[in-house]
Amino acid sequence: METRRQFSRIGWAFVVFFLVDIGIQLFMGVGLGLWMAYGGKGLPDMDYLMLAQASMYLCAFPIFWLMIRKVPSWKKEDGEKIPIGVFLLWAVVCFGFTYIGNFAGQIMMGAVEAVTKIPQENPVMDLIGEMNPWTVFLSTVVVAPMMEELMFRKILIDRIVPFGQKAAVVVSGVAFGLFHGNFYQFFYACILGMIFAYLYSSTGRIGYTIILHMMINLAGGVVPVVLLQGLDGFSAETAFALLGIAFLGLLMVGSMIGAVVLACLYGWRLPWFTGWAPVPKKGFWRTVLTAPGVVAFLVVCMGMFMLN
């Protein structure tokens, strides 16, 4: 019963985070709409994005933390360092499976469009493509990786690891995928979340996953925007952009091959540690998936997927 109660509180914490953020953004949207209706000027992309992130991380996050902090947590006593060579191999795995997961999302949404005859659009890429690269950099490369790793790795895993490392990795990855709210991002976010979860739970160092997260978002968000904006006419800037796009193509193909090879060679050798918390009589997963807070979290995420 205690396990069910703990996971329910975790689920409710995420639900409240979503609802507070959505409520504040709707309130700000209505306010800005009224301001512009009476002659006020609209805000630059930078201001809109900063207001959205302020809603999430300055308003919704503190409430999330106050709710989830009551759940008992675990901290690895001695954070383990990994050599730079091993870190770079992890980077190859992260990049490769990010691209593979992204292709899976694209294929799935393409199939949905073919069946329903309704055009499907990636809401994130459409938004990023219209923004200033510096705005995208600040949002996706600096703020988002730090806050998302804090929420989905540090805070979440520290409370699930007592039930076993595998359970912590699965819950963290799936929750991270669902958090993105659309199938374009779900698959790669889920896989990447599991990799980050394993790395953090094994080393106890959140800095590794933050750096990897920043690298992924830089290569997948900021760099393509800069390069595509450089494709204008015939100039040295255009030539540089074409070289950059070619390099990204090589990175994509090379990292996917490397990730699959590394996973086949070393994936089955990865060490896992077991949990020490008592297993619920009804089974761990049945207990977790029937916890009211977890059910509410899944319902809210399904709503977000349908809206997007």
What is the residue-averaged pLDDT? 86
CA radius of gyration = 21 Å
Strand proportion: under 5%
Order of helices and strands: HHHHHHHHHHH
Shape: globular
Give the helix tally: 11
- Sheet of most strands: none
Distance between the termini: 35 Å
Helix coverage percent: over 70%
Given helix and strand content, the structural type is mainly alpha
* Low-confidence parts: none
Number of strands: 0
Q: Describe it for me?
A:
The protein is mainly alpha-helical. The protein is built from eleven helices and no strands. It has helices at 2-37, 45-68, 84-116, 123-129, 133-160, 165-179, 183-203, 206-229, 236-266, 284-289, 292-307. Helix 6 (165-179) runs antiparallel to helix 7 (183-203). The longest helix is centred in the first third of the chain and has 36 residues, at 2-37.
